[in-house]
């Protein structure tokens, strides 16, 4: 974010759960911890609008003024994630209908039909009133629309809107029958009102946590339609606010790899991306890093905000461990290292009732500052003050991109076959992990992205190719890029119709091969990848599982073959020279050491190196601003480590001290180094 004097530090504040007497004490504690922003009022629609014609803003006026008197900015939430109960009572069709066709009762949150007109009317009216009332309030730094959108609905209104959506997209019934492949099982339709939404009452069922369907095309389209419908709720509020306060950035808090919403589409109407990060005790750091990079990638690498993390525990995970000493600080710096300009929390003062009362908070149930967590929070707050604006609006400079695509995710996992174990995000994570462990920066990009700035592009399991995507990859490789893709790629078009003539369809020329069969092996079975020649450190044999393509090379060169079964000796890893570049194909699901080894070689070939040599468990990431390079080093290990900075002159931005040569980084400690370039 431009023009910020220091990193936003604060979070969700719920004064509506407390009597007025406590607010002054809250402000004292906030300032003590270095908090400079509060998000308010995220869930107060019922208080702001007690009935259809009555609005009450006075209590909010008071808090905004109080914040500002205390030098604290406000991230103003529109409060539209949970409608008042009188509204659900008066307009019951506002409540969504679930997967099994049951109208939900009032309760929970984000519990509304996204296509309900009354919801749109009331939410935009409230937002408009707030924007008018507070447009000149000096505390307002940012708008926060709704909260963690993620609703889904199968009501009659949604069905009607879905029919209109399909009509707009496909034009004629004939075309729709073709695109949805409706001659299959005699599903041919003759009128738009014969379209049935794909739910648990029609074409979809749940296989554990994964939805499966008879008609992938319809199910994918319903996801597209729902993602757009929910987006339209956000966009309606966005337009109203933009009109009244064009200068104040607008966001909504996203959720990382959240399957139902195509965030790349949402990002277009988010002035700045923000997201909520809730790793558990056992989540490896690379997974969080990947999600930060994905969120940064939504807006072409522009900085994002961490809207929420917990200062310590969650309440909603199966095991809500406290964050170990130093971990909150490590996680906060990891967030900055991957491109954030804000470190914010849920929640500032801990609730005493309902389901989040045992969720960590800046001010815990103890009610004072003498806690381990508060001390750690204060240390971070002080350090962020010391960093000032040094890191703000800086960018990462990745030479590696990994392709991520929501529609592809839906398509891969709706697919009936080849293996129920195929999990799209897990496949992407394997490649990300390989680069992460080498401390090599990665951008997460959509398939249509401009790839010219990258030396390596990896597109794991890119099963669905939208128009133009294959061409995008081809011209990237023609111009010298290194491209990697895997099994189960290039099979279908955007409506999930197979491209005939041999997989991977439109990628066949680029990869110089065609896939004849794909074998799904059982979880207790394996095959192996036997190197035909040494590739970097890859030699001998590696285990592979789950899926094995049986393929024929055309122009590609075979680097490794299968070790077992009737296709032993057939290609398992190939490379094709294409223009000035190379396209690799990994035909099966290899053990991690194989992926790591291959990615290492590709980095060497392309002269991509880590900023410093470091041992495992030390993460290094860099951001760049003007003529400055800012290096973040996080030591996650239980032991101290030594890193050699060589003869370069660095400034330790936290301690404001010069650094060079060999330096010791204590266990769980962090270093932020600046250097002129
Ligand atoms: C989400 C929500 C918050 C809160 C936290 C609890 O991120 O946005 O309102 O419920 O989870 O972890
Ligand atoms: Zn609905």
TrEMBL record:
Residues 617-674 form the Beta-galactosidase C-terminal domain. Pfam families: Glyco_hydro_42 (PF02449), Glyco_hydro_42C (PF08533), Glyco_hydro_42M (PF08532). Substrate binds at residues 109, 147, 316. Residues 12-386 form the Glycoside hydrolase family 42 N-terminal domain. Its EC number is 3.2.1.23. It comes from the Bacteria. GO terms for molecular function: beta-galactosidase activity; metal ion binding. Keywords: Glycosidase, Hydrolase, Metal-binding, Zinc. It catalyses: Hydrolysis of terminal non-reducing beta-D-galactose residues in beta-D-galactosides. InterPro entries: Beta_galactosidase_C, Beta_galactosidase_Trimer, Class_I_gatase-like, GH, Glyco_hydro_42, Glyco_hydro_42_N, Glyco_hydro_b. One of its GO terms (cellular component) is beta-galactosidase complex. Residues 398-608 form the Beta-galactosidase trimerisation domain. SUPFAM superfamilies: (Trans)glycosidases, Class I glutamine amidotransferase-like. Zn(2+) binds at residues 113, 153, 155, 158. It is an enzyme of class 3 (hydrolase). Belongs to the glycosyl hydrolase 42 family. This is Beta-galactosidase. The lineage of its organism: Bacteria, Bacillati, Bacillota, Clostridia, Eubacteriales.
């Amino acid at each position: 974010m431009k023009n910020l004097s220091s990193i936003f530090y604060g979070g969700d504040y719920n004064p509506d759960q407390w009597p007025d007497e406590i607010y002054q004490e809250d402000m004292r504690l906030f300032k003590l911890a270095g908090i400079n922003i509060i998000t308010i009022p995220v869930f107060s629609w019922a208080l702001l609008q007690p009935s259809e014609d009555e609005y009450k803003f006075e209590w909010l006026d008071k808090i905004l003024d109080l914040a500002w008197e205390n030098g604290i900015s406000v991230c103003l939430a529109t409060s539209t994630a949970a409608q008042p109960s009188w509204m659900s009572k008066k307009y019951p069709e506002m409540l969504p209908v679930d997967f099994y066709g049951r109208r939900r009762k009032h309760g929970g949150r984000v519990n509304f039909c996204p296509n309900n007109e009354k919801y749109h009317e009331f939410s935009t009216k409230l937002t408009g009133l707030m924007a008018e009332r507070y447009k000149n309030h000096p505390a307002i730094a940012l708008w926060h629309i709704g909260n963690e959108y993620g609703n889904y609905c199968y009501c009659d209104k949604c069905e009607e809107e879905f029919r209109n959506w399909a009509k707009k997209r496909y034009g004629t019934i004939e075309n729709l029958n073709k695109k949805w492949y409706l001659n299959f099982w005699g599903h041919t339709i003759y009128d738009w009102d014969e379209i049935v939404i794909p739910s648990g009452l029609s074409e979809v069922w749940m296989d554990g946590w994964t939805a499966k369907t008879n008609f992938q095309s319809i199910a994918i389209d319903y996801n597209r339609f729902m993602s757009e419908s929910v987006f339209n709720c956000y966009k309606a509020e966005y337009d109203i606010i933009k009109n009244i306060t064009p200068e104040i950035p607008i966001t909504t808090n996203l959720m990382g790899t959240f399957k139902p919403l195509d965030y790349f589409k949402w990002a277009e109407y988010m002035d700045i991306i923000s997201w909520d990060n809730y790793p558990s005790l056992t989540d490896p750091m690379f997974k969080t890093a990947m999600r930060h990079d994905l969120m940064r990638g939504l807006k072409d690498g522009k900085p994002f905000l961490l809207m929420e993390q917990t200062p310590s525990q969650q309440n909603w995970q199966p095991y809500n461990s406290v964050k170990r000493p130093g971990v909150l600080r490590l996680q906060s710096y990891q967030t900055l290292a991957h491109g954030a300009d804000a470190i914010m929390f849920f929640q500032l003062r801990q609730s005493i009732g309902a389901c989040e009362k045992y969720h960590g908070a800046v001010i815990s149930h103890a009610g004072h500052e003498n806690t381990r967590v508060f001390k750690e929070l204060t240390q971070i707050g002080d350090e962020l003050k010391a960093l000032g604006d040094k890191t703000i609006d800086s960018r990462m400079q990745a030479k590696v991109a990994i392709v991520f695509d929501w529609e592809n995710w839906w398509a891969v996992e709706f697919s009936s076959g080849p293996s129920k174990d195929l999990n799209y995000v897990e496949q992407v994570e394997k490649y990300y992990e390989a680069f992460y462990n080498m401390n090599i920066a990665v951008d997460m990009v959509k398939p249509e992205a401009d790839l010219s700035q990258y030396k390596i592009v990896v597109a794991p399991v890119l099963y669905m190719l939208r128009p133009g995507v294959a061409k995008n990859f081809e011209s990237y490789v023609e111009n010298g890029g290194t491209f990697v893709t895997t099994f189960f790629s290039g099979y279908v078009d955007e409506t999930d119709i197979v491209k005939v003539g041999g997989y991977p369809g439109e990628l066949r020329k680029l990869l110089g091969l065609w896939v004849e069969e794909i074998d799904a092996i059982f979880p207790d079975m394996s095959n192996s990848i036997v190197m035909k020649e040494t590739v970097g450190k890859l030699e001998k044999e590696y285990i592979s599982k789950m899926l094995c393509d049986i393929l024929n090379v055309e122009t590609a060169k075979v680097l490794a073959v299968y070790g077992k079964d009737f296709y032993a000796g057939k290609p398992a890893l190939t490379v094709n020279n294409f223009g000035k570049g190379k396209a690799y194909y990994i035909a099966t699901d290899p053990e991690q050491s194989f992926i790591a080894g291959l990615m290492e070689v590709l980095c060497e070939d392309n002269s991509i190196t880590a900023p410093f040599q470091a041992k495992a468990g030390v993460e290094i990431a860099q951001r760049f601003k003007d003529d400055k390079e800012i290096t973040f080093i996080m030591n996650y290990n239980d032991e101290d480590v030594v890193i050699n900075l060589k003869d370069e002159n660095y400034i330790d931005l936290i301690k404001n001290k010069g650094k060079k040569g060999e330096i010791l980084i204590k266990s769980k400690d962090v270093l932020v180094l600046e250097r002129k370039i």
